[in-house]
């Protein structure tokens, strides 16, 4: 297994030099998050993830979760690690202090999740789902619900889940069948079957709080007739302790390609007692509150696994001796040269590095927007951050996970045959990454959300919110002594992005299929342009640091070199996505279903 | 997972209608004797039955059960022994084998279809006969008459299996540094000692004997790849009368736990003074290996295609049955709670990408197989030479491009299933895991790309490339105007490849790193261009027959999708190739 080292050098570069987290923390009134405090938290978090979680990653994959008569046992060490995590205060780091949290900024919570996800993706699912449930209850729960549930979740005594999917519906939640029948005491009897419920049952916590989508008896059809309920595994007593067992159970767990140590459960609700959260029939809205956060978190999985894969591949490429460099022996005292001398191995490593570091910048920028959307002083600033978040969230989710799959596959390829062997750990990263392209809304759904709902749905306004930023950056840096050519390239792509959007918008007015025909390529095009922008922002800072003679010149030179690689070798992918997004729907819709053969 | 259906209609289309393969067979006396359109059709139908009926049902269970190792013995999953017997008794192991030693003598283009069928049904299973066939090829072409007579009949018959022992712990790509030793003995045999890893089919319970072909170094061998010899080392010694004797001094030390192909035994093999016989001349081992390399590499490409086909079949069935959300243009299945997901443009994009890549891959691999047959059987030296050079050029493309496209295809096939795609029970994720090895073994795809650019394109001064380009240009020049929508983008693509190739030939003179810097993307541009040629050929046939049958309408629609949505990828790849090696060497190793 590749050892994981939290990439703190890169994190510091982004939060201090590129995005000015300290300034932004001061502006949102997060006075506890001083640079010293942040540094201490990052270092402690890194230690916990590297020393406690990472060693359980391979063993967790091999052992998997066990199901026995409704009871789920997590792999060895998981329970103890969770207890340590809770004791360390990590679970409530970014949670509301009113309910026992530490009230640190959301972005800081995301930096910690990055390390958690990288060291052990399966394990990270349990606190990840808990955080999702916490934000939904925080935003929509009654005060009493918050006191009871949010406090226990924040303290890590209880964990949470999100119960959405049913056998007949995943993407299309409008057709769920789970029912909620009002009871005399104001509670509801919930009945139905939910599938693919991550952390639906396990042995890490004394209670599990399920957030369940269900329909009231008189609910309108479709997505406007869905309500959200809190359905705890054990009903809380009046004092908030664990009380009677509720009538729900885990029917089985799935056997999956990856994230094997994360329990993916079939959950049966058999007139279980539930409590309405938020308004009746507004359940999907409640869910969407936490969606931005969860989708960024899923996007982050691509980055996390990509980072571990890169660390492993880099070590192997320096150690493995095989063939001589084409330009002559580089390690003449050895039987062969380390494979990092070979151009194609470098191409793979640099592609990994360029995508990882570019995605990290995108993720941190987006995390900062979450802080601002919650905490900026002015309503206008909050709205601006919300707008950018709405645009960037589906891109973070889909682009970062698509990159993650490419990166983990490249990492495996660098290992040759050893990459295919479980013992080396590289193939697990591919398997664990693969789900991130599917859950939290498949990447195809993210692309529809981006192009249909966000960009065209706002008549281009949300897109302009970002292209304007890029435009201003390009104007400001247009005469940059070293980077002007790349700035000009970005400006051109930024313009093409707007023009492409207009063309699709026009075509979609006549034919709604045009949106779905272009959406995935549109999203990928957008992602590569956005990464180009972040690469240049990083390059401008790196160049300035070099010019100023700051220490660590090698780090800044590497940033500039990776930026150059990104522009030369990765960014040209935009051309193919542009052509495909422009190709229109005719060639996709012409064949009747029967002509697909078989 | 949908039941596997052999894609015989498409195979017949490619062989009989697009390539009119019987015309080629008629010109090659050795083949004219054994095969015609009807025989071929009957063979494929029969192979399809065995694949779908006996082998496909063991695919999921084989993955779950895997192979098990106990004190040197390897047990294959339940049902494998029986299925292998059925397969061997049908003569399928020796389908391409020399009739003089009991093979069926079928051309590679038929063997290629059989490989697709078997590997679609169960790649883990398909590896055992494939390795045997590969070993047979080396023996047939390089071993003494005595060894051939002693080993080939039982191997073709599937009574004995074969393995290829190349890789060692420290030597995979770089075989020049292997350590396994061969000591000459007084009786003309050799004592082989060393450890080999990643040996597919190195040990198992399917056959009574396993014939290992082992690369090793003689005591006085020169360093590097020119000092490697090939040896035949049987698991059980064979007596003069052909009966089995004592166990040879070799054993399986362990098997690997892998991402996929779990029912294929990947073995560590320990040779401890094992008795072997030299195949071909001393120090000519790599050359003897290369004989079968073209066949094997094409075979690995076909493995990718096979998995892509299987994934597509299940994905289409699922997309027609799974109802979820309404079509953007309004409900299509009003009586149901939602529409089948095949109405959604993005699901169609994934399905059509799969279909276009699979069918393009089937045509291309069949085309390469026909070149192999021409190179082997033609009686005209110039024809043989041209075919040989085309094989040399196209083999790395077939291996790497088909498997790269297969990973994309199987990932799409998994994505169409949504969450169910991640669950083992549904079978789609296994295809991704099984597929992933095809990009690695038989020379990683990076090595294939170096082979294409360095050895084949640059190495021949562009001459091999010119055969292919000339053929495509002859086609585009003579194509009917009604084909313009396909021929025009093909012309652009070949012009693009031409420019890229001459540019690369020029740059490689100045800096050898340019080859490795460009190679993977160059191979991909080559692959898309080759598929464009295949799709234009298929469109020509389909256009003429579109009134006869929906099959041809579907072909044309898929051809249009390929040209509109997939071929444009070459522009990005070309830009990347043009960028050269400079940006790869701005960092020193420590700065990564």
From TrEMBL, chain A:
Domain Acyl-CoA dehydrogenase/oxidase N-terminal: 39-156
Pfam family membership, one: Acyl-CoA_dh_C
Domain Acyl-CoA dehydrogenase/oxidase C-terminal: 281-449
InterPro entries xref list: Acyl-CoA_dh-like_C_dom, Acyl-CoA_Oxase/DH_mid-dom, Acyl-CoA_Oxase/DH_mid-dom_sf, AcylCo_DH-like_C, AcylCo_DH/oxidase_C, AcylCoA_DH/ox_N, AcylCoA_DH/ox_N_sf, AcylCoA_DH/oxidase_NM_dom_sf
Domain Acetyl-CoA dehydrogenase-like C-terminal: residue ranges: 466-592
Protein name per the record: Acyl-CoA dehydrogenase
Similarity field: Belongs to the acyl-CoA dehydrogenase family.
Organism domain of life: Bacteria
Domain Acyl-CoA oxidase/dehydrogenase middle: 162-271
Lineage of origin: Bacteria, Pseudomonadati, Pseudomonadota, Gammaproteobacteria, Pseudomonadales
Entries under PANTHER family matching the protein: ACYL-COA DEHYDROGENASE, BROAD-SPECIFICITY LINEAR ACYL-COA DEHYDROGENASE FADE5
Keyword Disulfide bond attached: no
TrEMBL record, chain B:
Lineage top rank: taxon: Bacteria
Domain Acyl-CoA dehydrogenase/oxidase C-terminal: 283-451
Residue span, Acyl-CoA oxidase/dehydrogenase middle domain: 163-272
Entry keyword annotation includes Cell cycle: no
PANTHER family: ACYL-COA DEHYDROGENASE, BROAD-SPECIFICITY LINEAR ACYL-COA DEHYDROGENASE FADE5
Key word Membrane present: no
Name this polypeptide is given: Acyl-CoA dehydrogenase
Cofactor: FAD
Family designation: Belongs to the acyl-CoA dehydrogenase family.
Keywords: FAD, Flavoprotein, Oxidoreductase
InterPro entries in UniProt: Acyl-CoA_dh-like_C_dom, Acyl-CoA_Oxase/DH_mid-dom, Acyl-CoA_Oxase/DH_mid-dom_sf, AcylCo_DH-like_C, AcylCo_DH/oxidase_C, AcylCoA_DH/ox_N, AcylCoA_DH/ox_N_sf, AcylCoA_DH/oxidase_NM_dom_sf
SUPFAM superfamilies, alphabetized: Acyl-CoA dehydrogenase C-terminal domain-like, Acyl-CoA dehydrogenase NM domain-like
Domain spans labelled Acyl-CoA dehydrogenase/oxidase N-terminal: 41-158
Domain (Acetyl-CoA dehydrogenase-like C-terminal): residue spans on this chain: 468-586
